[in-house]
Write a structure and sequence with these properties.
The protein has a single domain, classed as Thiol Ester Dehydrase, Chain A (Roll). The protein is globular, with a radius of gyration of 15 Å. The protein is about 20% helix and about 40% strand. Strand 1 and strand 2 form a beta hairpin.
Length: about 140
């Protein structure tokens, strides 16, 4: 399989996940050691003070870092084993842009970092995650097609 086919299958897997029903309008682009995700800001993601809830920041950061690692793992599904996030400023409008980058690739644990920018290019959150391989083949996943 060509590596570009793997990237497209990962993008399809992202969009087919049930949780994506809650995050409509998002886009993803996967390349070698990198993933970029956008999400239009919508009031349905707000906490009581009318800005993006931390759970939404986490999802974007985790997904961007996850797919940066997944871009180089072509045989099995990986999972997040830990994630540290830092929220810098509130967002209540525009489009969020998350960029994940692979930092360290290992046999069992890999590390990636991710940053979210608002539509003015200001950093609004960042995080670092550890990801581990499972024994579940990617080819067995319904969305990886």
């Amino acid at each position: 399989m060509r590596i570009e086919d793997h990237y497209r299958k990962l993008e399809h897997l992202y969009h087919q996940a049930n949780v994506q029903q809650l995050f409509s309008g998002s886009t993803i682009a996967v390349s070698h050691g990198k993933a970029e995700i956008t999400l239009p800001v919508d009031p349905k993601y707000f906490h009581g003070a009318q800005a993006i809830h931390g759970a939404s920041y986490f999802k974007l950061l985790d997904d961007a870092a996850y797919f940066a690692v997944a871009s180089v793992v072509k045989d099995v599904f990986i999972v997040t084993s830990s994630f540290q996030l830092n929220l810098l400023r509130p967002v209540s409008s525009g489009v969020l842009h998350a960029v994940g980058t692979l930092r360290s690739f290992g046999k069992s644990i890999s590390i990636a970092e991710s940053v979210i920018y608002n539509d003015k290019g200001k950093e609004v959150a960042f995080g670092t995650g550890q990801f581990t391989r499972t024994t579940q083949p990617l080819a067995d996943l319904k969305g990886y097609e």
